[in-house]
């Protein structure tokens, strides 16, 4: 009886042991294209990451997707391969049991075969090679059936030497395995013991394992391995794993390496796992062995389980760079295992357990104490598991089949609740009593016959039950079911969150019972919106560790947004049939969807997927709403093929992405080989960076693979060709096919993600070139181009010649019309000159009639002169003889100076003139002389074609890199036909107006010489609206577009750039000019301001707005020069000039008249009243400044002359005209001479005699001679004294008395200051 109670415990321990072994998933490869991968005895990985397998059939390369066989194309291909190794250069050495040793070079994909030669001792020692190894010196060692061979590559040649053949014989020469210890010694497992070949060249030694029985030959060794501590590990053909200690030279059998039934395995290979343990391939399975604890894990084949080890009998092992273990068997092929891959274990029984069939489609759940329970398929057995790993509590159930129980719940009191279609049953696990509650809703008499999906007992001890019929509250004491609000809902799940809110998932809807609503019956249900509106069954609602509420809908995963109070779909998880959501303790959400289990992290937004290739039940479909987590954090899920469990924290994520390589190129679905007739691949495809196709090779396929073997079935790929594909093409099959690509150069790009969804950072790029056919090559296109160009040239030449002839005819006609008009104009003007002259000659006796006829002749000669000037300008522009002299000017001020020239026209025709411009200077570079012609021409046309009372406006507009000057008028406008020809030479849009068709064409030429544009826009007048014409000038800013020859010398004026100083001007001249005062009289404020700025800095400036104010300032300040307008209010310029010249105080001041009136009689009138010069508006600022400067220079010369006449006591020279000023000075001199002996005759007396005030006389005399009154009087007296002394008639005292000096000493002192000699010296000289 005591032993029978221990049986469940022993059985459960065995169950746990086998359940753990079922957690690892193997990928098995059995055949390639129908050829079995039998006898896989050699495995290696090359430098690129490809896996290589040596089998009985030959050499294969695996790229995580396909196997490719490699051979040399001859009869002698490597077969019956026993071992593979990769050297540091990336070459692969192949040991064959029948054809010697091979060297395969992946860079060229070529084989080199080494075979024994009986006549050559420097050849391989035997044709059957068992093993191959590369030592630390890059020497290759080959163990054969008859000794050891060393292969060394020296200066590009292979040199082979034989070893051991003289020291040993027979079975000892059968070298089956090689290893090198840390001292560089070579150890060999042979058919007769362990051989050590020392690195010092001493004689090799043989060690044999002592056999307790003679019939057992333990020294028949299979493999040898030297670990980092120097211990030698040996596998014996007589079974068992041995250790050899080189220091004690003793062997030790590892007794713990036995199967569960105590059998010793035959160990054929050992590799370290880089974690302190060893992997071993044995005849009884795969072993994971811990040498420190002697713990052994066995992995064997489980029949019917495709995820188990492919074959129990293994012969070869290899650990790749990702930590993946490759196992080679003799009959079944290759098995792959990654120890850190996910482990999904069958639960609660392994598939081979007979009980597993009873729980293949069972029920699964968790009690309030986090105990996991499961109910069998037939609902006749209940298993309850605790959290400490003890055997489960097994309870037999007796539930009616007719009730169709579907939903179960285990409460805290060990009461199992089972809900059927019309009944709720309770079963007490302690008393084994059943109690049945008919499913009748309070207030109704009919039993509810519908399925129940959810049962929950909340923290308020309320008992919730829900199904097709809606949501009910069950009163356990009274056995009453009460229908809750929203009776039409179909409940699928009920959940209580950490805040004690109750969430109810139904069809298309989610409801909530607020935690504050704790009433026992009929609490309020709040409907939570779910968007977008789609058909959903909410089988599970859950809360993650961060407090977020998630709902598994059949179309998507939803997250509750408390701000918007709604469930919103998650876009990271693929849409589909989401059946369950279970949060783990690390913050991941585990989602079940049909055959796939997802792991999703909401914060990092990473997603992994797992299926039966990762260990989930084969062909199993996950059942909705049964995912469960136990007290230890382990998760449990239910499928229709059984249940499984796993530890979420043990599932690692691989964030590294190995290399992505091209694996195959196919042309018209036929694979292209390196160096074949297609000429596409000169080297292996994985090394190729550029592929050039002919035009008839533009249908091709590129295969590629990510060399990631961990979860290679989940690898994802995306590719595209720039210029062909707009977006990435995401595929699971790593292949890209393109058809009929047009000729050109493309970049093929491909990227990949590993099985855990991590994408590589940079895509793999390959240049693809599609060569054109010969008729689309560059030289063909050149020929086409030349042919077409020749044809186009011939056609264009024909039409050009025809057009040229027509244009020439039209131009000749235009010139003929022009010269006809000009001839007519000349003849008209000549007639108006000759006829009036003839008439005047006949009527000489009548002066009035003579004047009338002479006016006709004068006006006609003016018109004729204007015509000749325009013709000369036109000729200069056309011939290119005009050299621009551009400077920087303020176009606003230039325009302000030009507009007053048209004031007379504007007033006579009552035309309103406006200037719209910025307040700040607008600086442009141009030749002001040429541009004035343009402005004057455009304004003249505007006034000419504007009717009386019309409007003319000028707009100056600045943009970022240019300035627009627009001249507008509201005349009758220009029709579109005339507008096209407006700037054509000799063309007149309105023949009724005077002109010759030159002005606008000339203006356009001048603007284009300035690298600008002149265009015209016009709107013809209608009956209701006046017309409008706008001439638009566009000029570039800065001076970069002008040549150095076109840019004049820079001036000192930053505003207008027109005040050019003479290079030879001295500092004294500049200083003198700055002391000069100019009076400007102009009624136009803008023009007066512009003129003031012209002279600002060089002169003292006085301003007057009318003639009367100008007279006042002239009398008050006695300026050095006066510039006055002619047409002014109150007193015009001619009257001002007359007043200035008639007054003795101001008669010496130069006066310049400025006017827009160009008639000769007006100019003559101004000059007759004494004006010194006459300027016509518009004026060139350079001319006005030069004229003012010249007048002041003449005045200074006259002042110097007057001063010299005073100092030297001479009269005016004939070179200077005798005028009022000279008369005035002569009168003053006479007054001083007349009173020269009067000691009391001073400044006041002289002013009184001259009839002026002292101040007026002072300014007048100072202006004329630059001398004060005292200087003037003293100079005259001393000159008279000198004359008297030189006469010799008077002595010094007499002379001092005569000229009005009381003190002769003072007289002598002053005399010496002026003449440099004393009076006595002058007198003495004359006597001598």
From TrEMBL:
Keywords: DNA-binding, Membrane, Phosphoprotein, Transcription, Transcription regulation, Transmembrane, Transmembrane helix. Residues 821-1039 form the Histidine kinase domain. Its EC number is 2.7.13.3. Coiled coil: none annotated. It catalyses: ATP + protein L-histidine = ADP + protein N-phospho-L-histidine. The chain crosses the membrane at residues 778-800. Residues 1226-1325 form the HTH araC/xylS-type domain. The lineage of its organism: Bacteria, Pseudomonadati, Bacteroidota, Cytophagia, Cytophagales. It holds the Pfam family HisKA. One of its GO terms (molecular function) is DNA-binding transcription factor activity. InterPro entries: CheY-like_superfamily (IPR011006), HATPase_C_sf (IPR036890), HATPase_dom (IPR003594), His_kinase_dom (IPR005467), HisK_dim/P_dom (IPR003661), HisK_dim/P_sf (IPR036097), Homeodomain-like_sf (IPR009057), HTH_AraC (IPR018060). The keyword Chloroplast does not apply. It comes from the Bacteria. It comes from Dyadobacter soli. The modification 4-aspartylphosphate is found at residue 1125. This is histidine kinase. Residues 1077-1192 form the Response regulatory domain. Signal peptide: none annotated.
């Amino acid at each position: 009886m005591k032993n029978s109670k221990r049986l469940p415990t022993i059985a459960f321990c065995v169950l746990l042991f086998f359940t753990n072994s079922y957690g690892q998933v193997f990928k098995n490869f059995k055949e390639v294209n129908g050829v079995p991968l039998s006898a896989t005895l050699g495995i290696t990985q090359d430098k690129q990451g490809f896996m290589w397998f040596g089998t009985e059939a030959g050499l294969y390369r695996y790229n995580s997707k396909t196997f490719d066989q490699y051979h040399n194309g001859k009869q002698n291909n490597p077969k019956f391969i026993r071992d593979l190794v990769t050297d540091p250069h990336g070459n692969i050495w192949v040991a064959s049991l029948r054809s010697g040793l091979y060297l395969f070079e992946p860079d060229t994909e070529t084989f080199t075969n080494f075979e024994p030669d009986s006549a050559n001792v420097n050849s391989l020692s035997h044709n059957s090679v068992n093993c191959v190894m590369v030592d630390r010196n890059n020497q290759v060692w080959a163990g054969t059936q008859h000794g050891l061979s060393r292969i060394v590559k020296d200066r590009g040649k292979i040199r082979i030497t034989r070893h051991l053949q003289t020291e040993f014989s027979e079975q000892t020469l059968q070298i089956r395995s090689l290893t090198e210890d840390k001292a560089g010694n070579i150890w060999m497992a042979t058919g007769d013991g362990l051989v050590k070949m020392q690195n010092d060249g001493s004689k090799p030694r043989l060690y044999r394992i002592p056999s307790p029985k003679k019939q057992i030959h333990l020294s028949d060794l299979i493999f040898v391995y030297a670990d980092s501590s120097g211990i030698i590990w040996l596998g014996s053909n007589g079974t068992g794993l041995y250790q050899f200690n080189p220091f004690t030279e003793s062997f030790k059998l590892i007794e713990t390496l036995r199967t569960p039934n105590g059998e010793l395995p035959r160990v054929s290979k050992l590799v370290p796992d880089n974690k302190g343990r060893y992997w071993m391939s044995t005849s009884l399975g795969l072993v994971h062995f811990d040498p420190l604890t002697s713990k052994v894990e066995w992995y064997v084949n489980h029949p019917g389980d495709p995820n188990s080890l492919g074959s129990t009998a293994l012969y070869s092992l290899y650990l790749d760079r990702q930590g993946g273990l490759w196992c080679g068997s003799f009959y079944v092929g290759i098995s792959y295992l990654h120890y850190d891959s996910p482990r999904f274990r069958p639960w609660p029984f392994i598939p081979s357990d007979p009980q597993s069939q009873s729980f293949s489609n069972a029920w699964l759940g968790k009690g309030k104490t986090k105990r996991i329970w499961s109910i069998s398929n037939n609902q006749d057995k209940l298993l309850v598991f605790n959290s400490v790993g003890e055997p489960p509590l097994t309870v037999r159930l007796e539930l009616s089949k007719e009730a169709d129980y579907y939903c179960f719940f285990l409460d805290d009191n060990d009461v199992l609740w089972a809900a059927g279609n019309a009944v709720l049953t309770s079963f007490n696990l302690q008393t084994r009593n059943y109690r049945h509650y008919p499913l009748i809703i309070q207030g109704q008499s009919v039993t509810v016959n519908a399925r129940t999906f959810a049962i929950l007992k909340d923290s308020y001890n309320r008992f919730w039950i829900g199904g097709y019929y809606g949501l009910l509250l069950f009163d356990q004491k009274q056995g009453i079911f009460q229908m809750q609000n929203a009776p039409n809902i179909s409940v699928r799940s009920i959940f209580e969150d950490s805040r004690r809110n109750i969430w109810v998932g139904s069809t298309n809807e989610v409801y909530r019972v607020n935690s504050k609503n704790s009433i026992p019956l009929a609490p309020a249900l709040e409907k939570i919106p779910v968007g977008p509106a789609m058909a959903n069954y909410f089988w599970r609602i859950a809360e993650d560790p961060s407090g977020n509420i998630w709902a598994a809908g059949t179309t998507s995963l939803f997250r509750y947004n408390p701000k918007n109070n709604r469930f919103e779909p998650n876009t990271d998880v693929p849409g589909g049939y989401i059946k369950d959501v279970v949060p783990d303790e690390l913050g991941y959400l585990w989602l079940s969807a049909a055959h796939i289990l997802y792991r999703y992290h909401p914060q990092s937004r990473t997603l992994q997927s797992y299926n039966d290739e990762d260990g989930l039940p084969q062909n199993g479909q996950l059942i909705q709403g049964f995912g469960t987590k136990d007290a230890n954090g382990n998760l449990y899920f239910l499928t229709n093929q059984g249940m499984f469990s796993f530890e979420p924290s043990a599932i690692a994520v691989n964030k590294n992405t190995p290399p992505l390589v091209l694996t195959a190129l196919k042309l018209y679905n036929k694979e292209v080989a390196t160096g074949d007739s297609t000429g596409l691949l000169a080297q292996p495809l994985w090394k190729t960076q550029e592929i050039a196709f002919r035009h008839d090779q533009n249908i091709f396929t590129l295969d590629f693979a990510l060399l990631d073997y961990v979860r290679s079935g989940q690898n994802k790929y995306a590719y595209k060709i720039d210029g062909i594909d707009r977006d990435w093409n995401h595929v699971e099959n790593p292949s890209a096919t393109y058809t009929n690509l047009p000729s050109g150069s493309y970049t093929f790009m491909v990227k990949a993600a590993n099985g855990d969804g991590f994408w590589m950072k940079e895509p793999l790029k390959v240049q693809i070139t599609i060569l054109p056919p010969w008729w689309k090559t560059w030289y063909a296109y050149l020929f086409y181009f030349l042919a077409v160009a020749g044809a186009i040239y011939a056609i264009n030449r024909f039409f050009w010649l025809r057009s040229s002839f027509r244009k020439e005819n039209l131009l000749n006609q235009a010139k003929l019309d022009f010269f006809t008009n000009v001839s007519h104009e000349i003849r008209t003007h000549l007639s108006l000159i000759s006829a009036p002259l003839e008439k005047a000659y006949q009527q000489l006796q009548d002066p009035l009639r003579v004047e009338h006829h002479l006016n006709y002749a004068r006006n006609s000669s003016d018109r004729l002169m204007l015509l000749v000037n325009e013709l000369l300008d036109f000729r200069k522009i056309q011939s290119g003889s005009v050299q621009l002299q551009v400077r920087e000017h303020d176009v606003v001020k230039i325009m302000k100076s030009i507009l007053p020239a048209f004031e007379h026209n504007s007033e006579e025709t009552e035309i309103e003139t406006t200037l719209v411009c910025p307040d700040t200077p607008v600086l442009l570079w141009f030749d002001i002389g040429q541009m004035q012609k343009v402005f004057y021409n455009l304004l003249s046309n505007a006034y000419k074609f504007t009717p009386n009372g019309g409007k003319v406006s000028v707009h100056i507009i600045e943009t970022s890199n240019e300035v627009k000057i627009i001249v507008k008028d509201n005349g009758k406008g220009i029709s579109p036909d005339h507008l096209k020809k407006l700037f054509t030479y000799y063309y007149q849009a309105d023949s009724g107006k005077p002109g010759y068709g030159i002005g606008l064409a000339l203006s356009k030429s001048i603007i284009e010489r300035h690298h600008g544009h002149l265009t015209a826009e016009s709107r013809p007048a209608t009956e209701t609206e006046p017309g409008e014409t706008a001439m638009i000038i566009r000029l570039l800013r800065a001076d970069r577009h002008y040549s150095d020859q076109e840019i004049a010398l820079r001036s000192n004026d930053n505003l207008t750039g027109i005040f050019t100083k003479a290079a030879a001007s001295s500092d004294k001249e500049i200083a003198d000019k700055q002391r000069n005062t100019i009076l400007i009289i102009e009624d136009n404020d803008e023009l007066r301001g512009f003129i003031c700025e012209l002279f600002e800095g060089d002169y003292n400036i006085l301003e007057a707005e009318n003639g009367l104010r100008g007279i006042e300032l002239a009398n008050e300040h006695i300026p050095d020069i006066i510039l006055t307008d002619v047409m002014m209010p109150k007193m015009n310029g001619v009257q001002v000039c007359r007043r200035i010249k008639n007054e003795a105080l101001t008669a010496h001041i130069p006066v310049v008249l400025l006017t827009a009136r160009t008639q000769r009689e007006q100019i003559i009138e101004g000059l007759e009243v004494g004006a010194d010069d006459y300027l016509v508006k518009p004026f060139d600022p350079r001319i006005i400044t030069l004229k003012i400067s010249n007048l002041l220079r003449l005045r200074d010369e006259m002042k110097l002359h007057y001063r010299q006449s005073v100092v030297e006591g001479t009269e005016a020279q004939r070179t200077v005209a005798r005028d009022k000023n000279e008369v005035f000075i002569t009168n003053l001199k006479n007054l001083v001479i007349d009173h020269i002996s009067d000691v009391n005759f001073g400044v006041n007396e002289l002013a009184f005699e001259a009839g002026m005030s002292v101040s007026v006389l002072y300014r007048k005399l100072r202006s004329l001679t630059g001398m004060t009154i005292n200087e003037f009087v003293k100079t005259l007296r001393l000159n008279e004294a000198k004359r008297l002394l030189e006469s010799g008639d008077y002595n010094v005292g007499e002379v001092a008395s005569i000229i009005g000096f009381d003190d002769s000493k003072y007289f002598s002192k002053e005399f010496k200051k002026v003449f440099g000699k004393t009076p006595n010296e002058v007198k003495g000289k004359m006597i001598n």
